[in-house]
Write a structure and sequence with these properties.
alpha+beta, 2 domains, 3-stranded antiparallel β-sheet, 12 helices, 41% helix, globular
Length: 257
């Protein structure tokens, strides 16, 4: 979570920044993090490490219920030593750099995004996260926000994370907090444990109860990202009764899942 006291506006959508090994603060920002992972972060990292989603979640995350909306989130587990450093960082930098989480990728910027389907309103806002220990602002190159997004490979992460936001967009906090333990567990499994959700789809009666396009079934069987996208649409139906094109119930009983 970002300390609001560190947030600064970006004038003219441009800023100076550089992160280099010769800076005294190099990798200092990679310790004692309260870093929330998104479902897409989990997929990228578990694939990079050659782990199942269950193995990754058990080894590298802690989970908690977010008090603001009552749904589970997963947080990257820091090393259990005095430094409390990220398990993927070394003195030479990030060992999973190509698949680093979106929160690391976007730094030193932050992004606030909203998408409200009912009102058909969407937007995003970028701001600077100015931490006192970071020396990257002193003699960095000039960046436009759009340049930074392209350079850090953020467009794909933003697109995937916006699909996640869309699951609960526009829902009143009281609605989310009243879902109950069974549906909360469903949310956690569908969002973060893609391998367990795959078993739910393919090893249960799911495909006999719901009509899913054959080509989508083929993609979901082998592609974690396609399955994640399906999971988000499925949750909108299963949790909130929304009509989504991903899966149509075969009977009235299933329609009231």
């Amino acid at each position: 979570m970002i300390d609001q006291s560190l947030m600064r506006p970006i004038e003219n959508r441009s800023f100076c920044f550089a992160c280099r090994k010769d800076l005294a603060c190099f990798t200092r920002c990679c310790a004692k993090l309260d870093l929330i992972l998104t479902p897409y972060d989990v997929i990228r990292l578990k694939k990079r490490l050659g782990l199942s989603s269950v193995e990754f979640l058990e080894k590298h995350t802690t989970d908690r219920i977010e008090p603001s909306y009552g749904l589970p989130a997963v947080k990257l587990k820091m090393n259990e030593d005095d430094a409390q450093r990220c398990p993927f960082v070394s003195p030479h930098g990030c060992n999973v750099y190509e698949d680093r989480p979106g929160a690391c990728r976007i730094y030193p910027l932050g992004r606030a995004a909203s998408k409200i389907r009912e009102g058909d309103r969407a937007g995003e806002y970028y701001f600077m996260v100015r931490e006192s220990h970071c020396l990257g602002f002193e003699d960095g190159r000039q960046w436009a926000v759009e340049e930074w997004i392209a350079d850090q490979g953020l467009a794909e992460y933003n697109a995937m994370n916006d699909l996640f936001i869309d699951v609960t967009a526009g829902k009143h906090p009281d609605t989310l907090k009243s879902l109950g333990e069974r549906r909360i567990q469903m949310f956690y499994t569908a969002c973060y444990s893609v391998d367990a959700f795959r078993r739910f789809v393919f090893a249960s009666t799911f495909l006999r109860r719901f009509e899913v396009a054959p080509d989508l079934i083929d993609r979901m069987e082998h592609d974690d990202v396609e399955l994640m996208k399906f999971a988000f649409k499925w949750l909108r139906f299963a949790l909130f009764g929304e009509k989504t094109p991903a899966a149509a119930p075969r009977d009235a009983e299933t329609a009231h899942y």
